[in-house]
Write a structure and sequence with these properties.
alpha/beta; seven-stranded mixed β-sheet; 28% strand
Length: 244
């Protein structure tokens, strides 16, 4: 199974990273719709999409307004957007108000049920996370493998049981350890607690994403610190493809 990291940055895009979005093209499953959502059009493999939003901060939803042409030109049959009821309401009321974006794309907005069925007999579940305004994390279990996506959250240890034994964990890591104070203030994660989570939860592989856009270098979160704790850790980059 293939997953493509379309955007691996947080808050705003920079020359290296767009904001949050990742896609399983062959299944038509997408997580978040940040500025990198414009890349979805070139990766379409299905006629139906399931888009799962972690929350409604602008860097995770603005890309929903970029998908008007594929919807108007019959490139897909349906695009279902899942999220918490209050977040979906805010998107429809504010992002797609007449003064900002006067034409509402043909999305079907669906309040997250307890579980959602995704292609290849996958079962998706979600968990509330600690973040200003609220956020959710996701996990999909297929018959022979599993994936978890956790973005925008503080205190990773709080969701250990939810991601336990997952094959692939994609987790935000906005700050390095020397900015832990800012992680606490902003409701984000930093390097060591995320790596410890992966180790303690016995995950197969850890990908770090949602990086601070002010840090655009090759190693913005001290990857060696994470790898010392959990060796099978890599830093996500835009357009990175992973088979799992």
């Amino acid at each position: 199974m293939r997953i493509v990291l379309l955007g691996t940055g947080g808050y705003h895009p920079n020359e290296r990273r767009h904001t949050a979005c990742l896609m399983l093209p062959e299944l038509g499953v997408i997580f978040d719709a940040g500025t990198s959502f414009f890349r979805v059009q070139d990766l379409l493999k299905t006629r139906d999409l399931q888009i799962f939003l972690t929350h409604a901060h602008l860097d995770h939803i603005v890309g929903l307004s970029y998908f008007l042409v594929p919807l108007l030109t019959d490139q897909i049959d349906s695009a279902k957007v899942y999220g918490e009821e209050s977040k979906l309401s805010a998107i429809q009321t504010h992002l797609f108000c007449d003064e900002i974006f006067p034409l509402l794309p043909d999305y079907e907005f669906i309040t997250l049920p307890e579980t959602v069925t995704v292609p290849d007999d996958g079962i998706l579940r979600h968990l509330k996370l600690e973040h200003p305004g609220g956020s959710v994390g996701y996990r999909i279990d297929w018959p022979d493998h599993s994936l978890a996506y956790i973005s925008d959250t503080a205190h990773p240890e709080q969701h250990l049981n939810f991601i336990k034994d997952v094959d692939l964990l994609i987790h935000e890591c906005y700050f390095p350890d020397d900015m832990a104070e800012w992680a606490e203030k902003t409701g984000h994660s930093h390097t060591t607690p995320v790596a410890e989570l992966a180790r303690d939860a016995n995950v197969g592989k850890l990908i770090l994403t949602h990086i601070d856009p002010q840090r655009a270098g090759d190693d913005p979160i001290d990857i060696k610190v994470a790898q010392k704790i959990f060796p099978n850790t890599i830093l996500g980059e835009d357009l990175m493809e992973i088979d799992f």
